[in-house]
Amino acid sequence: MRTVKWILPALALCFSALPLTAQCGESSQNLAPPNTSANHGFAATRNGNLGGETSVSNVNIHTLLYPGHTTKVLAHYLPWWFDPQSRGVAVGYRSDDPAQALRTFQDMHARGVDGVIVDWYGQNDGKGQPDTIDVAWHKSLPELAKLPDLSFAIMVDSGTYNFNRCKGCDVTQTVLSQLDYISHTYFSSRQYLRYDGRPVVFEFGLDWSGKVEWSRIQAAHPEIAWVHIHKQGFDRDDSAGAFVWVAPGLAAQKASVANLPELKEFYRYARTEPAKIATGGVFKGFDDLLAAWAKPGEKHYMPQACGATWLQTFDLINQNYSTARQLPFVQLITWNDYEEGTALETGIDDCVTVQTSLSGDTLAVKLSHAENVDHLELYESAAGGKFRLVSRYAPQTAAIPLPASASGPLYLKAVGKPFFRNVVSAPIRTGREK
């Protein structure tokens, strides 16, 4: 946590990457409480994940997309958190806990997410152990059903073959055996993601595991709309579409600004294949410092740049799509991959700071990184530790005339754009306090 004081004539201000500390006044914590599905005791990590006590903006994610869009926003979801010692980060929850699953889906829904893409390792992943991705997802489905607006789709990960292939099977045979299971287990759900009536299945890196006969797979399950990773999804005749993934550089060559050539090329190529499903991608950055599978000399990194990378990924969508050329899906990369530093569950550090000073009945406001703020909210303390919303203001507001009815103390809250953290000022003493 980083806390900075500004000594001003009227008051000392504080702001932090985490919700308010006692320095800001204990009562003001109620204006920016921990509000995500993350474990509230989860500590921020060295690879760029905020702590579980962060207050994250619930401004609808769709507000970052072009006007008139029909795009569904899907969160890439990893239900693989079980033993705290088994992975590079101890997140403090279990993916097979139904109560945790419900918190997750409620959190997604509150932020405007339309569904989840489940990173799936096969029916018997974990070699028959109870702590498996498929078991966790089975336990999660009844909780997802409590939010019927949310959809889900399966992404068949290369781990399906690498860790869970059928005996003596090659990649194609493994996929075929798993598809039979997916078809009768998941496609019957009313919440399963469909495109033009066909169930959508994503695949991640199966071609990296060996030669895959996709025409044979498609012939066995013609009902499936396959969406493949990267440009190959547009090139294949048996493919329904493609999705883009984050492409970080080497950590040894850390950049301060994200370079996104792969993302730009994906959208350029997608426009030449209008009949195929394009699934865009948005992300905050990347850092696999804590990933056990990343070799010391092969670590990768993409800067978050105080939220600029996140907004750039949306800008590229908005430059290439419109009401006349709709983007069907966009994938949030990722909801909870804490090992690669892409977790959006605990929000994005927007580096916003708030400075205020009071002159008479006018409150002067100065924000850093105002481009990351959706709007400002002025609150007045009320009895019982509660607050009354006085009014809302645009983030460009430099001066706020205090209403005659406001006594105080007052607090100014900078509500972040979608997925950014919220920031609250220290108490503003008006001199009218009773």
TrEMBL record:
Residues 27-46 are annotated as: Disordered. Residues 27-39 have a biased composition (Polar residues). Keywords: Signal. Residues 1-22 form the signal peptide. This is Glycosyl hydrolase family 71. It comes from Paraburkholderia metrosideri.
